[in-house]
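Progress narrative, Year 2. Work on Cytochrome P450 from Phormidesmis priestleyi ULC007 advanced from sequence curation to structure prediction during this period.
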Amino acid sequence: MEPISNTNQEIVDSGNTKKPETTKAFKFNPFDLEFHTNPYPAYHRLRSYDPIHRHFFGSWGLTRYADVKAVLRDPRFRSDNLPQRLNDKNQYLKHQNQNLNALVRATNTWLLSLEPPDHTRLRKLVGQAFSPSVVERLRPQTQDIVDQLIGTVQKTGRMDIISDLARPVPVRVISTLLGIPEDIQDQVYQWANDLSGILDPFNSLETLVYMNQIIQKFSNCFRELIAEREKQPQSDLISSLIVARDEGDRLSNDELLTVCMLLFATGEETTVNLIGNGMLALLRHPAQMELLKQEPTMIASAVEELLRYDSPIQRIARIALEDVEIDGHKIAAGEQVILYLGAANRDPAQFPDCDRLLLNRSDNNHLSFADGIHYCLGAALARVEGQIAINTLLQRLPDLQLQTNTLEWRKNIALRGLKALPVTFRT
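Result:
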């Protein structure tokens, strides 16, 4: 059993380092309303007093950047076995004559759940459509979509950035990429939205049964689209995936189905939260917002900082495949490790002035899209969508202001995003 790290961490309070203090008892509760509203003070305390934390529900939690990055790259850990967890819950539904079989079958071929060699093969097939060069060619279409959406509200003097822009943008871009007909895009979006909470480990049985029904509808819809593309191929991702081959093996229908569903269910939510969280950060830091407005060419570095500052994905899980030691703590084979990406991105050992929003921050190697073999497939696309949406908002809507300081966050401990972000501006 080899150790991952032996990092000496200083006590941290709001991003300022202090001399080490005596360890204090600290109850960490990820379900606490105050934590849900602003998790970062709790992350600082946890990283200071108990950086390799044993949760009350049995898993481990890591909050230091070095530890999180090391586990993401360590082959002794595999991705969280979501299909198995879902299948285990079937035993509680037998007496209701219900099951989660459709969810289990779908998630079983999600890239998030796969390990090599299946993961390597499938990612190679799908990854070609999301390479930076391919995504860059989507910029004109993405700009047109953003311009159209902002034009719809530009004369009103007010908008909800989430519902009027952040949500429609990724739905339309992914629909264009896949070749989803316009008349069913709203329905597909709703299904994707309903499924976006699938990664939350504390979903109720009732919620999971509902998701099982949704994924059946989702699957039936894409089966029809796949059948149409098999008869009449078009210049879209579904058509490309149908004929995709890797070492002579054709992509199976189940894999093709789940790739399409995964792109909507997870890719859409990440971009929504990037735009929403990013704009909120700018609105609360007017000097930085004005800097970006005056220097729009710095949008690439700005988006990286916004991703770091308030991560769209706050936590992901890994399972130890063998006994592993992390800084003196023994993680047993089979135990779950929660990697707090949001905490790692505010680690002062990695990011000086970690609680300050600095759009021109250099050396910004954040972990918002994870790392290792499960690095987010749609990261390049999310970046382009975020860059275009945020820059266009700042350039086209003068004097942007928060309409209220009472904001509600979506109830999801894995994803961090607002339900609404109402703003006003000069017409």
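DSSP finds 18 helices and 14 strands in the chain. The first helix runs from residue 33 to 37.
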